[in-house]
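Forwarding the complex inputs:
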Amino acid sequence: MHNLTALSGLLGGALIGLAAAALMALTGRIAGVSGITGGLLQARPSDRGWRIAFVAGLIAAPLLAALAGAPLPRPAMTSSLVLVAVGGLLVGFGTRMGNGCTSGHGVCGFARLSTRSIAATVIFMVTAVATVAIVRHGLGG
Amino acid sequence: MPAVVASFVCGLIFGAGLLISGMTQPAKVLGFLDFFGAWDATLAFVMAGAVAVASIGFALARRSAAPTFAAKHLWPERRDIDAPLVAGAVLFGIGWGLVGLCPGPALVNLAGLSLPIVVFVAAMMLGMLGYELWQRRAVPESRPRSASIATTPSDG
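Prediction (whole assembly, two chains):
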């Protein structure tokens, strides 16, 4: 447990929850990032404005933080570029097929007590834990 | 137009939350997913904080007749646990476990324009587009159905 940052985790989480609640209260939409982004790839131009705005807000957050002196996020990756590309394809295809990701199913679905979203969250969590176990520790050590 | 501005501000707050929580760092996410290594419980605290605040906010939103800048709340209506939900969650879980990035943090990280993030986001969009095309080809008669899905919201 030596890397735990519980307080900033709780605070950041509360902001995520606040954003999800505000998006519903103000625009009537669920703050699911894969659904918002994937909707941009469907042929319905009338529906695009709010989606582009939400994604722009996500990208603007670190840019505003950079104005205040924070470094731009350039996270270190443990996997090769090929693996990163494979992961990206799986995340994109899987979240659209399963109708949601960590935000839509995880945060919003749990907050709505949706059994469908809770089931999806348990499945992608367990699969991700199993994937990390295989990648980091190998099958049978 | 006010809805678009509100959406931008919500995205901004959402992104700030991801940055502050540390969830834009794949190392912290993979640290949580690594049950058999040096386990980092932070993600559980992020989820707890987010779900707690969203639950209260959603309960308040349900009491109001309509959203401030829209005609109605588009609450997800589906309750079934079908094969695409399960298969999609499995595929997403594998990708998430391989890299440690899910869609929100990936987009926030795009601001840094580092090569692996650009590759990940490009591949993610390609995967999303691939699903759209595959779905359209697989069930061409479902045009009215997908139109109704677009108006009734997806889960996320």
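Helices of chain A lie at 6-27, 33-39, 48-67, 81-97, 102-111, 115-137.
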